Amino acid sequence: MGTVSEDSLANAGVAAGKSAPVALIASKWGKITVNTVIEYIHDLSAYANLFEYYEKNENEHWTITLMHELGPKWSTFLANYIGETFVSAGVQPKTKTSDRAVIFNL
């Protein structure tokens, strides 16, 4: 990832987020909703160990934090990959990134 530009990673995240997660979510839960996207993210954390997953839900306003040790370019990819998956569920998340975390507010 070191030699790949931020724009290329962002574009790769968007492209990947439009396809694989949508197919996996539809096959496992039958439809793409905010809740099934959240379940998918939780599964990525639990089984693929791509990041640590934290969530907070206040009156159906979700804050989802993904923490990792893979640097800012991984944050860029994750923000776009997961963000595009939420878009498929009809939600445009507000996203913040840092070197070690991505935060989605829904």
- CATH uppermost class: Alpha Beta
Proportion of residues in β-strands: 15-25%
Average predicted confidence as pLDDT: 92
Strand order in space, largest sheet: 1-2-4-3
- N-C termini distance: 28 Å
What shape does the CA trace take? globular
Helix content: 40-55%
Largest sheet: 4 strands, antiparallel
CATH superfamily annotation: Trafficking protein particle complex subunit 3
**CATH-assigned fold name:** Muramoyl-pentapeptide Carboxypeptidase, domain 2
> Stretches where pLDDT falls below 50 for ≥5 residues?
none
Give the SSE order as H and E letters. HHEEHEE
Q: From the coordinates shown, what is the CATH architecture?
A: 2-Layer Sandwich
Q: Briefly note the structural class of the backbone.
A: alpha+beta
Q: Over the alpha carbons, how many angstroms does the gyration radius reach? A: 13 Å
Q: Please tally the helical runs, counting DSSP H or I stretches of 4 or more residues.
A: 3
- How many strand segments? 4
Total number of domains: 1
SSE order and pairing:
Blueprint: H1 6-29, H2 34-48, E1 52-58, E2 61-67, H3 72-88, E3 94-97, E4 101-105
Helix pairs in contact: 1-3
Describe the protein's architecture and organization.
By secondary structure, the protein is α+β, with helices and mostly antiparallel strands. The longest helix has 24 residues, at 6-29. It has a single domain (6-105), classed as Muramoyl-pentapeptide Carboxypeptidase, domain 2, CATH 3.30.1380.20. It has 3 helices and 4 strands. The protein has helices at 6-29, 34-48, 72-88; strands at 52-58, 61-67, 94-97, 101-105. The model has no long low-confidence stretch (mean pLDDT 92).
